[in-house]
Amino acid sequence: MIEVTAALIVRRGELLACQRREGGVHPLKWEFPGGKSELGETPEEALRRELSEELGIDADIGRELWQTRHHYPGREPLRLRFFLVTDYRGAIENRAFEQIRWVPVDQLAALDFLEGDRELIALLGRGELSL
Fold first, then answer.
1. Three-state helix/strand/coil letters over the chain
2. What's the whole-number mean pLDDT along residues 2-11?
3. What is the structure's pLDDT at 25?
């Protein structure tokens, strides 16, 4: 099983959403920033590294908010862990995505998110998980 971490980066009640590039896997789908853990990394270390690579920030990784498992056809199963990030150093810059944007929680469902993220978005939208 592939271990994947993702950040729920919060700013003034909005979350940072990132759109995958057109030429990659799951083109133009939206996701939360993060990625696969490398051998020997804790989930928090993996997420800190990914946020540095993708967004150029040094993030303080907060509590794990939620986790799930997902299996995309033709791929190895994933365990997805979502962590809260409320503080970071540096200015966010788009280093890896088609586009990034700050989105109010109640508007996340309007974006075409990856299937693995949709249950979390539904939970947030219904108020069953809070940031």
1. CEEEEEEEEEECCEEEEEECCCCCCCCCCEECCEEECCCCCCHHHHHHHHHHHHHCCEEECCCEEEEEEECCCCCCCEEEEEEEECEEECCCCCCCCCEEEEEEHHHHHHCCECHHHHHHHHHHHCCCCCC
2. 97
3. 87
pLDDT of residue 24: 87
- 7 occurs within a structural domain: yes
Domain count, the chain: 1
Query: Which residue segment(s) compose the domain that 49 sits in?
Result: 2-125
Residues 6 or more apart whose Cβ sits within 8 Å of residue 95: 53, 54, 55, 56
Can you read off the two tokens belonging to residue 29? 């789908």
Query: In this structure, is residue 130 part of a structural domain?
Result: no
Q: Per the domain annotation, does 40 fall within a domain?
A: yes
